[in-house]
Each structure stands twice: as C-alpha cells, then as structure tokens.
Amino acid sequence: MTTYDKVIALLDTHQARYRVVEHEALGQTEAISALRGNALHQAAKAMVLEVAMPEGAAPRFLLAIVPGDCKINFKSAARAIGGRKSGFAAPEQAQALTQCVMGAVPPFSFDDRLALCVDARLSEVGTLWFNAGALDRSVALDVNDYFRIVGDACQADIATPVTAAA
Questions:
Q1: pLDDT of 57-102, one tens digit each?
Q2: What are the Cα distances from residue 121, in Å, to 10, 67, 142?
C-alpha cells in the first residue's frame, strides 16, 4: 500500500471532509500553493527532524508540520518531545521513515518511530492543503477533521513566521 493509499484510507475511515487535486509534480511549497490556489499559510510543510534527547537517551525522529509561510524553530520542535536540540534528519532516513520522497510527505506519521508535532497556527486555517505521498496529488482537508484524526495533543508552537524582505 502506498503512502497515498494510506492517507486516503485513513481519511475515509474517519469520514473526513476532503478532496483530492491532481496537478503537475511539484515539491516546493510556494509553487504548489500557487498552482493549487491555496493561501501559503494553509499549506502543511512536513519535515523529518532528528532530535537529540537528554544524556544517554537515543535520538528520536519527529515529523514536524508547519504552515507554508513559516520556518521550523528547531529548538521548540525538540522541546515539544522532550529533546534538547534538533536538525533535519538525513534524507535517506527521512525517506525510510515516511516512505515518500521529500516534498510529498503528508502530515501523518505511519511509522511508530516517527513522532508527530503540528504547529498550532495550522488549527486556524480552515482548509489544510498538503501533498499526499505523491508529488502530483494533493489533498484539501477540513482542518477540524485533521485534528480530530491526529488529536490536539500533537499541537505545539514549533514555527516562526517568515518575514518578507523589504
């Protein structure tokens, strides 16, 4: 079963309100948002982080979801799961944990080794847009259904708005 199939099965199981949009294969948040016609703050950017835990503990992996108009706050993301600091996971590790190419990672974790943390700003977007395990397919999902599926406990302030250059 592909990641796309897993996403659709999960949404159907929870009777979520969503629609699938097929489009050109793009993995850049700004470009795909323009193509889909959604506001940048509605786009869910997914990043796999490696989190350094307190002394003696093995590192953990985190699927961090932030709005398209924000950047990840690595320290806040690490603290959200009890870690000290974080950085991007190696591309091979990220792909192994998500079963997706980067740019196509949905805002759901299907691997027990990959904790999920979602920036709280996304709870206010109305419709959440994301690539659904494939670069050429996106999902527009009612944000209330998203948080009903993943739970509110995964919310944290893990992003920083990107300010436009003057």
A1: 999 999 999 999 999 999 999 999 999 999 999 999 999 999 998 8
A2: 23, 7, 14
Residue 94, H or E segment: helix 91-98
pTM: 0.93
Query: Is residue 166 in some structural domain?
Result: no
Question: What residues make up the domain containing 30?
Answer: 3-161
CA neighbours within 13 Å on the CB side: how many for 141? 31
Alpha-carbon Rg for the chain in angstroms: 15
With vertex at residue 117, the alpha carbon angle to CA 44 and CA 126, rounded to the nearest 5 degrees, is 40
Give the N- to C-terminal CA distance of the chain in Å, as an integer. 46
Looking up residue 10, the CATH number of its domain turns out to be 3.90.960.10
Contacts of 103 (CB under 8 A, 6+ apart): 26, 27, 28, 131, 135
